[in-house]
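Box S1 | Example of a co-folding query
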Amino acid sequence: MKIKYTNFMLMGLLCLSVTTVAAIGGKKGKAVTKKSSAIPPKKFIDPANMDLSVKPGDNFFDYANGTWVKTHAIPDKQTRWGSFGILAQENTDRLLVILKEASKTPGLPKGSLKQRVGDMYASGMDSVSIEKRGYEPIKADLERIHQINSKAGVVNEMTYERSHAIADPLFGVGVRQDSKHPTKYIVGFNQGGTSLPDRDYYLKSDARNVKIQNAYKTYITTLFTLTGTSGETAVKNASIIFGIETELAKAQLSRTQMRDPKVTYNKFSVNGFEKITPHLTWSQILPELKIKGAIDSVLVGQPEFFKAADAMLVSKPVDDWKVYLEWNILKGSASTLSSPFVKASFTFSSALSGQKVQTPRNERMSGLIDRSMGELLGQLYVEKYFPPAAKEYMVNLVNNMKIVLGDRIKRLDWMSAETKDHALKKLAAFSVKIGYPDKWETYNGLVIDRNDYFGNLRRIEEWHYNFNVNQYGKPVDKKRFNMTPPTVNANYSPTNNEITFPAGILQFPFFDFHADDAVNYGGIAAVIGHEMTHGFDDQGRQYDADGSLHDWWSKGDADKFKERADMVVDQYNGLTVLDTIHVNGRLTLGENLADLGGLNIAYEAFKKTKEGQSTAKIDGFTPDQRFFLSWAQVWRSSQRPESAASRILTDPHSPEQHRTNAPLTNIDAWYNAFNIKPGDKMYKKPENRIKIW
Ligand SMILES: [Zn+2]
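Box S1 (continued) | Returned holo structure for zinc ion
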C-alpha cells in the first residue's frame, strides 16, 4: 500500500523536521499568563545531560547534550533518537492506549468514529488472518497485468492502478492549489516512477550506494520469488526494473533544482501537454483518473521528465513494462501482506536506514491509522491529551513573535523601504493554526471492517484519492489542517501563507507551562520563528501575502538577499557528517535560513520578558545561557550512520548537531552568553557573522 495520501496537499510545505513548541510573555502584544499550580522540582535545563568537559565555543551541541548522547543508546527499532523521537514515541504510546480501548469496546454503531479506528486497529492486529491470506490479496492485480499484450494495455493499467489508488507507476498526478492562483485548484503532474529515495541512489556508484542498489535488487528478486516466479526470472526482473528506474532517475530534476518554485511551474493546455508526450493521450486519461469538469490547463513540474518517460513507453518492450507494473503492486503491498513479505520489506528498508529490528506491529498500526484516519484518531487524542490553555498560550506567543519579526524587518539595513512594505504586508497576512482543526474531517463513506485488513487499506487509499480529485473545480478549503494532531512537527504553507503547530509539539522540551521563559523561548518560540522565517526563505520569499507565486522584491533587494543567502550556503557546505559526507548547503538552505531567523526572532522576543531582562541564574545558568541551552536541547539527537547518509541526500534539514551550532556562530548574544573568544573552534569574527532576518 502506498500510504502517502497527502502528497499533493503537502506539496510546498516547509516543515521543522522532527518538532516542538514554547512560550512567551512579551511587553509588546498581549501578555501570556502562566498556570499558577505548584512548580515541580524538575530541571528544565539539566546539567546531567551536558558534557561540561567540552568548551561551549568548541562544540556547543556536545557541551549541551554530550552526556545525554553518550548515555542514551538508539533503541533497536529506531534510526535516530532524541527530543523529537522521544515525544513521538510518547504520543504513539498514548495512541495505542486509545486504539486498544476502542478496539475492545463492544457494540459501537457502524460508521462511528470509535468503531472505525477500533476496527481498523483490530483488523491490522489480526496476524492470524493476515498470515493465512499470504499474497492472495494482490493475486487479482498480478493476474490482470499478466493479461496485458499491448502498449495501450500498459497505459490503461497505469491509469487503472492510479484511479483505484493501488499504485503510482511512472509519474505523480493530483489536484493541488495553483501557486499563481492559490484560491484555485489545478491538476498537477510530477516526476516519479522510481523506488529509491532519491535519484542519486541510481546514479552514484560509491560503495555506500552500490550496497543499497544491491539490497534493492535482492528485495525485488525476493518479492518476485515469493509470488511464484522462478529464481532466474526474478533476477532478470530485478535487472529490468533497475534499468527502467535508472532511466527515469536520469530524467528527473534533482531536489536542489526543484527548490525553485518557478522552475517547477509549467502550465500547459491539455493539448499542449499531449504534444510533448505523444503516447500519453491526456484528454482520454484525465477522465479515467476521475478528475471531473472542464480542464483547460495543467501544471507540469518537470516537462523534460515527461518527454523522457513518454519516449521510454516506445523504446521499452511491453514485457518489460509488465514487470515494472507488477513491481509497483508488489512493493506497494509488501509491508501489509504475510510475514515473508513484511520481512523482505524491512530487510530492504533497514539497509537504507540502519534500523535494527522491525517496528512492533501495534506501533505500525497506530502510525498507519494516524496517517490514514488521523482526524478521527486525533479527536480522541486531543480530548485526552491537549489542554485548551496551550492553544491560548500559543496564539499570544505567535502574535508577540509577529511583532518582533515586524520590528526586525523595519530595522533591516539591506532592504529598501518599498520591499519592506511588501514584507510587512506579508507578515501581517500570516494565518496560524494551532493544535487541531476547527472542523474535523469525517471520512464520509469510508467503511472499516474488523475482519478485512487488506480491504480496509484499499478503501482508505481510494477514499483519499477520491477526496483529492473531487476537490477539482471547488473553492480551495483553507481550513484544512495539513498535519494530524499528535504529530511532533510544525510547518509553513507558502500558498496559504500560514503556519501550523499540531498539538503533538506543544510539549517539553519545546514547551512547558512550568518552565521559565528562557526554556520556552529557546524551544517553541524558536520553532515559531523558524516557521515564520520560511515565509521569507529562498522559496517562501517568492510568494506574496496572498500566497501567490509572484515577485514582490526590487532587483537590488533580491540581489542583496541572495548574496546573504549564499553565505549561508557556503557555511553549511563546509560542514560534514560521518567525517567525510558534506552537507548540501543549497538543498538545506531554506531550513538553515529558518533556523537562523527563528533563533534571532525568539531571542529578541525573550529579551522583552522579565527573565530576559534579569541576570538571576537558575540551576547555575544565566537567562541567556538557558535560552541557548534550550535551543540545543530541542535538537538533542543521535542517529545511525545509514540514516545520516540517507538524510544528506534526501532531507532538506541539516543534521541536528549542525542545526544547533551553525546558527549560533552568527549570533552575537551567544558569544556574550558563553564568553566565546578567538581560538574557540566555533568562533567567527564579528564581520563574518551572517545577518539576514
Ligand atoms: Zn522548516
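Residues 14-16, 530, 534, 591, 594 surround zinc ion (CB under 6 Å). The CA atoms of residues 431 and 498 lie 4 Å apart.
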